[in-house]
Amino acid sequence: xxxxxxxxxxxxxxxxxxxxxxxxxxxxxxxxxxxxxxxxxxxxxxxxxxxxxxxxxxxxxxxxxxxxxxxxxxxxxxxxxxxxxxxxxxxxxxxxxxxxxxxxxxxxxxxxxxxxxxxxxxxxxxxxxxxxxxxxxxxxxxxxxxxxxxxxxxxxxxxxxxxxxxxxxxxxxxxxxxxxxxxxxxxxxxxxxxxxxxxxxxxxxxxxxxxxxxxxxxxxxxxxxxxxxxxxxxxxxxxxxxxxxxxxxxxxxxxxxxxxxxxxxxxxxxxxxxxxxxxxxxxxxxxxxxxxxxxxxxxxxxxxxxxxxxxxx
Length: 313
Description:
With 313 residues, the chain is of the alpha/beta class. Helix content is 23%, strand content 28%. It has seven helices and 17 strands. Strands 1, 2, 3, 4, 5, 6 and 17 form a seven-stranded mixed β-sheet that branches. Strands 8-15-9-10-11 form a five-stranded parallel β-sheet, with helices on one face. A three-stranded antiparallel β-sheet has the order 12-13-14, with no helix packed on it. Helix 1 (11-22) runs parallel beside helix 7 and helix 5 packs parallel to helix 6.
C-alpha cells in the first residue's frame, strides 16, 4: 500500500509526488496520457520561474527526471474508479480505511489520494485539432501570445475568458479577428469597450469554424455563416481557441464536491469533503491557471497529505 496515490502526471501531480518523496512518503503517479500534462504542447514557455525560455516538452522532461531521482513510481494507465474501502482489520490501513484506485491494468491501494487530473481546453472538434495544437493553434495568450507579435491572428470565442485573451493579444499582434458563433459577444461590457479601443481588432459574429485550411501545417480556417450557410476562408498565422475548459473530475464526484462547472470545490488548502483526499492544479476551482499555480497546489497537497498521514491534520 502506498502512502500517497497521485492521479494525474502534469505539473501539479509531479510536484506533489516530488514533495511527497522528500517527506519520505511512498508515492505512485498514475497518468493516462503523457507525463508532463498539457504544457508539453507549448513549443516555447517564458513565464516559468527560473527559466528565461524553455519548451514545454523540455520542462515536462525535467519534472519527470526530478521525480525519478526522488524514486517516485510511475504507472501509465487510465483510472476507471477510485473509492474508499473501510477495513478495520487491515493493519496497514490508516484509521481503518484506505483508497482503492482501479485502472485497466490493475488496482492500487493508498492511504491518501491526490487528484491532479487537470482541465482540458475545449477544442473545436475538427480534424486537425490534435495535429495543430501547440503548432499554430494555442489556448493561452499569456503563454503563447508573444510568439505571434506583429502577425495575423484569429481567436474563437466571445465570453469573458475569450475577451481577456483578446485584450492581451490586441496589444501584440498586427491584426486580431474574433470569431463568435452567437450573434453577439457574451463577455462583460467593460471588456468589449476595452477591445474597441484597439483599431486592429475585427469581430465577426454569427459564424462557426467548420474546418482548418488544407495542408500539413496550420495556415488558417474556414468559417460558415449560421444564417446563410455561406463559407469563407481566413488565412491566419495563428489561432487561439477560448471556448471553455473541461475539468477531468466526473470520475471522482463521490469523493470530492464539484461546483456547477465540474471543478473541485476546494480552496488553496486543497482539502476536500473526504478526509485523506486532496486536489491540486487546474481541476480545482480557481481564477488563475498557470504552471506556477499548478505546481504550488501540488506542493500544498503533498504537504497536507503528509500532515494527515502523520496525524497532524
